[in-house]
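Tokenise the fold.
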Amino acid sequence: MRPQRGSVMQTTESMVLPGISESDACFRLLVNCVKDYAIYMIDTDGRVCSWNAGAERMKGYCADEIIGRHFSCFYLPSADTEQKAMQELAIARQQGRYTGEDWRMRKDGSRFLADIVLTPLYDPSGELRGYAKITRDISPRKRLEERFHQVVQEAPNAMIMVNTAGAITLFNRLAESMFGYGSNELLGMPMERLVPERFRRQHGHLRQSFQQRPEARPMGVGRDLFGLRKDGSEFPIEIGLNPIETEDGPMVLAGIVDITSRKQVQHQLEMALQEKTTLLNEVHHRVKNNLQVIISLLNMQTHYVEEESTRHVLQDSQARVRSMALIHQLLYERHDFSKVDLGEYLQRINQLLLSSYGLLAGRLQVELNSPVGLVCIELQRATPCGLLINELLTNALKHAYPNGQGTIWITLSLLDAQHALLVVADHGVGMPSPIAAGQSKSLGLQLVPMLAEQMGAELSMHDNQPGVRFEARFPVFGAGDSP
């Protein structure tokens, strides 16, 4: 709107021509030194009447070549070029400002995309004196935007960009296909429309929280996320968030992946694992039961044997089978088929052996120090380890104290992060004489070094003054996985 005569326009939409003064000279000098913008004046008829260094660099004309010519010479050639140029001046005069983006032409005929601002200029009396035109070459920015849009369109995932108000400003074809919307239906849509209704309020709070601390990160870590299609169906998704600064303000670029297939495969794997676990559990239960049958048969056999030595052999066999059955019993109870807790195993085998040997162990005391959960051993080494423990403890119960009174010490401890130490010691009569490996007539003592080797243990026997002390140093569960 044209101002009243005598008023001075001081708005951003218009400029007032200053009088000829020192400030005017400084202003003209400032404008002329600007090289990134073309800044020039146009009279009321559309002819160029000033020209700065930025205009010369951008458009290729020097001042002598262009001053006095109609500014429509910068437009792309067409039949209505001058009419179009004058329409822009009329809009600027009527609305106080004209802005837009359009293609312009340089002196050499090359084209560039220009960001244009036209502002009417009035003198102090309010009379229109001309127009100020500011032009900026935005071709490089547009090329970057086009490349960015191309990258988004060709991305292997659905991509959606959202502004601070939560409205969608950019999306690719995969996003349209994933959510079931047609071309441009997503543009301007609130992001919450793509979220199931039961999550929308929470999603709004999360979006605001992200804006307060924007950083590239996955969304909803540890939670199941769902998208909502146009037809109302839901599907599981994963979302990666990336903050982006643009000329229109901060934006958030979301990469979205439909994980329906992955969830189905995961469910199938979980079902297969559950079936495998059930099967293994049943196998260990049946093995334990079968071993228990063998123990019962050996126990029945002892009642039909008259020779004391034979009954002892059958009793020792029962103890060995029982030590193996206990391994499977623990696996069945704990549902962990990868390892055995030796602390719990020692406590259980100690009770079984004391009960098995009855009167023989009645006056003997066993001091056991084996914390549960401290030392575990792999399944493939658990059986020889259990048999080794059985042989060492059985030997102490039967031979350490001929008079039937005394104490046996069993200790399980960690030496370091990868090794444990098992000690079975007594203050009994000790070994009758030094025994070379493999020369003992006792089956138990012949089995001990073989079992130690199978479980990867370093076995040593020491004089306990009096008595004997067996030490087995062996790797704990998972020690082989360390570098």
